[in-house]
Amino acid sequence: MNISIDEDKCIGCGVCQSLCPECFELKGNTAQVIKEECEECAVEDVAKSCPTEAIVVSRGQEKED
To answer: What Å distances lie between residue 10 and 23, 28, 50, 56, 59, CA to CA?
Structure first.
């Protein structure tokens, strides 16, 4: 799974960082993704915990050359 932050929605509350400090950190007033493919947490649950729905989780697809 790939994780990203919609910076327009993020309010920097820190919920994601408190639930999974392996994947998220706060820089200024915005969360940042440390690991785009996290296996340390249930990232879908972390995304559901975001009060502004700023965490975007997508299934990675291999690119064809």
So the answer is: 15, 11, 9, 11, 21
